Amino acid sequence: MARVIVITSGKGGVGKTTTSASISTGLALRGFKTAVIDFDVGLRNLDLIMGCERRVVYDLINVVNGEANLNQALIKDKHCDNLFILPASQTRDKDALTEEGVEKVLKDLEHLGFDYILCDSPAGIERGAVMALTFADEAIVVSNPEVSSVRDSDRILGILQSKSRRAIEGREPVKEHLLVTRYSPKRVEDGEMLSYKDVQELLRIPLIGVIPESDDVLQASNQGTPAIHLKDSDVATAYLDVVARFLDEDRPLRFVAYEKPGLLKRLFGGK
Amino acid sequence: MADASLQGKLIEFKGASLAVMTAYVRETDAVRLADALHMMLGGMPDFFAGEPAILDFSQLGNSPDRVDWTAVLSLLRRYQLQPVGVRNLDEHLQEGARRAGLAVLRAESFSAERPVAAAQPRTPPPAPAPAPAPTLSPTPVEAAPQAPAAAPSDNGLDNGLAPTLVVDRPLRSGQQVYAKGGDLVLLAGMSPGSEIIADGSIHCYGPLRGRALAGARGDTSARIFSTNFGPELVSIAGVYRTFERGIPQTVAGRGAQVRLTGSDNLHTLEITPLQYD
User: How far is B77 from chain A (nearest CA, A)?
Assistant: First the structure.
């Protein structure tokens, strides 16, 4: 059985696509056959972050409309053999997504032997976002440590509770995970930012990880390499931890405590 | 052929009973009504979510010579209230109401207690003056799935048999639950931006952070209980309070109850800490 995981948030710019790219890569690195679908019809970002934008020929809408088959549309990742990307369409709009069409794509992916299917949700609560979460078995809700982002995440959790197939059919509810991204322990210490504990207290779902704010993320997306590939960086380590926790391994939280820079660091600068 | 058998039935009539809200209109001047509604409902233009309503003029101060129905109706519709009829309206105003598309209902066709025949709307008891949302039903798309429209009970509010609505999962921003005729129990708290309404009392285990309205049909003995108090608004039988300047220190984040004290015409909302030990 393929597990369908939606990466969602409500608010834009919180790191959904970065997270989708890194977690799908992480799962593929663990040996799972993984597909990641960009549901942001009209805006198409995932292929850029994954560095495969030049290889896009067919997209999700083509497959939904039966203009191409899955094998034609799936793009093999340049780093991992068992990771495939299904890009969004840039020329169509969200109305082109139909529930039956999406369901068929997911079923077909399952027949192709995929273990995990990640759905990278667009921002907002419109059609694209609802389509991305409709068939989810699990949801990773990405939130920045900031009130409006938390409020939007809360809203999307409500929609998950009411519009997902699992909810409508009265099956076991979608398993929810909270991922706090762009976290800056220093700004939390200074009282400028909500702590991850505050965020979790507000949303009341299990925490799967905290991703520190880092310039590496920008650099990684410019290069078209998922951040999880940046060897020895905090961000990559944090995402590897998230993947491990997703697979039910125990990992302590890292990068959440603020350490004052030492004397040498203060004298000689550096980050 | 299915077509043939349906040929004569392009439209079919069946009796239905409808729970409907009564708006006691005490002023017919559209401008003054607009001010009052704005005061009451503030920035919530979609407050009534298309709810049908009967306009009752029994409490109208002095009867005007004429009523600008177009203005009054468009004002109410702006709040998505859907007036369907009028009652207790003076004879000389009825023709205008009819022309405005409203049904003129005979006062005796209502029985507040028992909805006897089909198509006889039930009339809730009058709520005290600023009564927000007497009968909002949960919005079908967003309401939590475990919040079915509780079966309407003819029993009224006082026999203890009204159904209790229990919500097991956290209520999220944008969700709304209405416990019709009875109490509401939240087992996992509620988030800011969500709304709970009960005709009886509200019991919230976990954070109470959205809008909580108890005694929505005028039960002044209804109360709100919470183990973690921090709402945006509380209301009992229409007497409400917001917390612009923050929640009082004695109850913020703690167990607290909200109830009405005082006599019939001078109700005040009292918020007190709950002692468990």
Answer: 26
Beta bridge partners of A210: A180
Coil, strand or helix at A182: strand
Q: Any idea which residue has 């704005």 for tokens?
A: B38
Q: Which residues contact B36 (CB under 8 A, 6 or more apart)?
A: B27
CA nearest neighbour of B192 among B168, B169, B216, B175: B175
Phi then psi dihedrals of residue B270, to 5 deg: -120, 130
pLDDT tens for B195-244 read 999 999 999 999 999 999 999 998 999 999 999 999 999 999 989 999 98
Q: With contacts defined as CB-CB under 8 Å, which chain A residues touch B144? A: 158, 161-162
A67: which residues sit within 8 A by CB, 6+ positions away? A58
Residue of A162, A168, A175 to mutate, interface with B, max B Cβ within 10 Å: A162
Contacting A residues, span 170-209, partner chain B, CB-CB under 8 Å: 170, 173, 202-204
Of A126, A135, A139, give the one whose Cα is nearest residue A164: A135
Looking at residue B42, what DSSP letter applies? T
Chain segment A191-246, per-residue pLDDT in tens: 999 999 999 999 999 999 999 999 999 999 999 999 999 999 999 999 999 999 99
CB contact at 8 A, A227 and A217: yes
ipTM of the complex: 0.75
Q: Is the pTM of this model over 0.80?
A: no
Q: Are A3 and A32 in contact (CB under 8 A)?
A: no
The residue ranges of DSSP E strands in chain B, in sequence order, are: 21-24, 52-56, 82-87, 103-105, 165-167, 176-179, 184-186, 195-198, 202-208, 211-214, 224-229, 233-236, 239-242, 256-261, 268-273
Adjacency order of strands within the sheet including B195-198: B176-179, B195-198, B211-214, B233-236, B239-242
Report yes or no: B20 and B122 within 8 Å, Cβ to Cβ: yes
Amino acid at A87: P
Helix B30-41 vs helix B69-78: angle between axes, to the nearest 10 degrees? 10
Measure the CA–CA gap between B76 and A12, rounded to whole angstroms.
36
Burial of B117 (0-12, 13-18, 19+ CB in 10 A): exposed
Burial of A18 by CB count in 10 Å (0-12 exposed, 13-18 middle, 19+ buried)? buried
